[in-house]
Amino acid sequence: MSFVLCALSLGLEHEQTEYKAQSTKLTCSFKVRMILLFSLLVTGPLVIAVFLYLHKHSSKSKSPMSSLATVHTTLSPDGSVLVNGELWLAKSIDDNLVPEKTKVIVVGLSDHLLLVSRQHRRKLEANRTTSI
To answer: Are residues 78 and 31 in the same domain?
Structure first.
């Protein structure tokens, strides 16, 4: 009789242990899912931002040299110009005031500063009209 009671108690303990193991598995599974979801929510946008940043800066950008630019802020002689949709600091080599919205040509580059000229643009336009 004691043998039977002992076997029954072992059977019950075994079932309880198995139930606890299953509930632990479910809990671990839930925890793992929550950690993965949280990781994706946090790191996902970061990965996308890094990808877009690298994609933008790795693309071959056109050199601003000899490009036509539009004066954004008056060059006296320093100011800014728009070249290929990008805003650059610029300096006029003509040593005179160049008003906003004037078309100029980029003739050089000095320490992240574009050197621009209205005179060179006029010469370039004159050469284009005579060659046609």
So the answer is: no
